[in-house]
Design brief:
mainly beta, 4-stranded antiparallel sheet, disordered C terminus, globular, 2% helix, 249 residues
């Protein structure tokens, strides 16, 4: 362990893209931003009345969004501390997944209500229906929104129209996490079926399968696209070479 920061009981966390700050959300519905180097609290955002279950920074770090157990979403300007749209309503269950578009103007959300919502720049949403169980995670590229759900599928949606492009099938248990590669050509996914998978977004082909041996609850692709990191339910983190993943297919 490099170091630790005692910040109390927090339910979710998100790093700003440049790594200089991170945010946490707690059971009281409060979001805090912390300086990574000093561990100091540098911002507090309030408005939610239920526990925070998802957080995401915009790519430029100027906005942060939080989803709550009450189904509401809020977006704040991190520099001014201003709540941009108030409570964004529409979901009828816990918001488990949030992701900004690469330009930071739009937002995707996924919820226990099995719905994906695509939010515009003024806080209005479009409903993306197709999942049959809770949506646990979302990711956003220039062309697509990706969502993973308890129905064991990953769905690829057109980022502009919201139309369903394809369904990625292969996991045999609920999909916990998804992440794009930096070039947005590949998607990594993790599941309670104890595997991580690498998919070609344009074709829907499975390029690699890795047997993690535990529920995969978090996943990320490195900035250079050469490594995939998986975090498991029982606390193990694995760092895989993309080459290793391809060889294990």
């Amino acid at each position: 362990m490099e170091r630790s920061i005692d910040i109390g009981n927090q339910w979710c966390a998100s790093f700003q893209a440049d790594g200089s700050k991170f945010a946490t959300g707690n059971h009281r519905g409060t979001v805090k931003i912390w300086d990574t180097d000093t561990g100091k609290d540098i911002g507090t955002f309030e408005g939610h009345s239920r526990p925070i279950r998802s957080l995401a920074f915009s790519p430029d770090g100027r906005k942060i969004t939080a989803g709550s157990e009450g189904g509401t979403i809020r977006v704040w300007d991190t520099e001014m501390g201003r709540d941009l749209f108030g409570a964004m309503e529409g979901h009828t269950g816990t918001v488990y997944g949030l992701a900004f578009s690469p330009d930071g103007t739009r937002l995707a959300s996924g919820s226990w209500d099995s719905i994906v919502r695509l939010w515009d720049g003024v806080g209005k949403s479009k409903v993306l229906e197709g999942h049959t169980r809770a949506v646990n995670c979302v990711a956003f590229s220039n062309a697509y929104v990706i969502s993973g759900a308890d129905d064991q599928t990953i769905r690829v949606w057109d980022a502009i129209s919201g139309d369903l492009v394809r369904v990625l099938r292969g996991h045999t248990d609920l999909v916990c996490c998804v992440a794009f590669s930096p070039d947005f050509k590949l998607v990594a996914s993790g599941s309670e079926d104890h595997t991580a998978r690498l998919w070609d977004v344009s074709s829907g082909e499975v390029l690699a399968i890795y047997d993690v041996g535990d529920w995969v609850v978090s996943i990320a692709v490195s900035f250079d696209g050469k490594q995939v990191v998986t975090g498991s339910y029982w606390g193990k983190v694995h760092v895989w070479s993309a080459d290793v993943l391809f060889r294990d297919l």
